[in-house]
Amino acid sequence: MNRHHVVRITSQGYQPLAAYATQTDALRFLITKDCRIGAVIYRDGTCGKRYSHNESRNLAKQHGLTT
Questions:
Q1: Which of 46, 56, 47 is nearest to 17 (CA)?
Q2: Does the predicted model carry a pTM greater than 0.85?
Q3: How many degrees, rounded to 5, is the angle at CA 56 between CA 50 and CA 62?
Q4: pLDDT, tens digit (0-9, with 9 covering 90-100), for 5-24
């Protein structure tokens, strides 16, 4: 099963925050996070593509998700 990941990138490296079975659940979680401590990004579990925080928020808007 492919997992959709939300991770934080800091000077210490990657910190896994959550993994979900669906893209919508991962994006719903991501839009609740801020980037004060480090960039929060989304990694698509089906193709492996990484999306920046802003790209992820735009993708969430396309899915009808809002903060």
A1: 56
A2: yes
A3: 125
A4: 999 998 889 899 999 999 99
Question: What gap in Å lies between CA 25 and CA 13, rounded to an integer?
Answer: 24
3-state secondary structure string across 14-53: EEEEEEECCHHHHHHHHCCCCCCCCEEEEECCCCCCEECH
7 class by beta-carbon count within 10 Å (0-12 exposed, 13-18 middle, 19+ buried): buried
- Tokens linked to 1: 């099963």
Cβ atoms of 30 and 42 closer than 8 Å: yes
Question: What is the C-alpha separation between 60 and 67, in angstroms, rounded?
Answer: 9
56 C-beta neighbours (distance < 10 Å), count: 22
